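Project standup — Tuesday

K.O.: blocked on the structure for the chain from last sprint. Re-posting the sequence here as requested.
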Amino acid sequence: MKQNRKHLFLALLALFLFRSLALADTPQADSPAVRPRAADKVSAVKEALPMARVTKDTKITAVMQDPLFGDWGRLLFPVDPAYWDGDTLGTLRLAWYSHIRPERTVEIVNALRDRAAAGEQVFYDIYTEAEKAADPRKRDTGLFIFRGRPGARAAIVNAGGGFAYVGAMHDSFPHALELSKKGYNAFALIYRPGTQSACEDLARAIAFIHEHAAELDIDARGYSLWGGSAGARMAAWLGVHGTEKFGEKAYPLPVAVIMQYTGLAEVTGREPPTYNCVGTADSIAPWRVMARRVKAIRANGTDAEIEIFEGLSHGFGLGEGTVAAGWLDRAVRFWERQKYAPDA
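H.V.: unblocked you, prediction finished:
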């Protein structure tokens, strides 16, 4: 009997020691050993994703709700659903725009997802929480960054949409992505519709890239403003009137404005160097209006160019697969030849 009790005692003691050692090696819920690191959080998000890579068949709502994009995934598409149509990336349509290329849409979304998954910040708020509380429409603004070389020059690209919506997926994201491939740091602005509010948001974006140039690792000197349709008007107006006209302190003017398909006719004599392109079949932005404006800018002694593409309608974007293909390369060369002071 004594021998059996001894064996039972030893067995219980061994079990107790084993459990103690196991518990000692198991991190507890409130232990620092199990607090997720930033990299672990990214991995967890990756594992939770409903898709590894988006395709033309990916639902637009799935992209909007992608955990990698957080709250700003919805800003990849027009906030007002009345201006876009389609269920998938391959069927996306935007009001007033032609030549939307599904493969480009897919490339843009995957590029942003890849960078977000790698831990990069790809979206920046331009307004504080207090400012957004005072004006809830400011919650629908911000800057998407398409990074180029560290320390390289910057461009801000503004999509059109008739000042009713922001057609970024066709009219600014593709441009920004191509500029980043060339090494530039390109920002695509999501702004509040309306002429005044849109220009105020662009003024804030210009202020943002100058005030945060060091942390963004960009060169804000010699920056350029790009835009199509309504976005081209924004670029032109800020290029002439400056940020102080729209509620910000004065920041340097752009060294070049790149404009696509807009019927802006006014010339003040203070225009920066301006590149333009438009199609002859554009019923919204007549090419003759743009040509006359370019002629007037040149008459004031300022560098200006225009390319007129036979048969193209409004909103051709990058012009891929059309007679306008390659215009962005020529616009970049136009920007590059503009001189600016080192401290500008």
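K.O.: great, moving the ticket to review. Residues 1-49 have pLDDT under 50 and may be disordered. The chain is about 40% helix and 15% strand.
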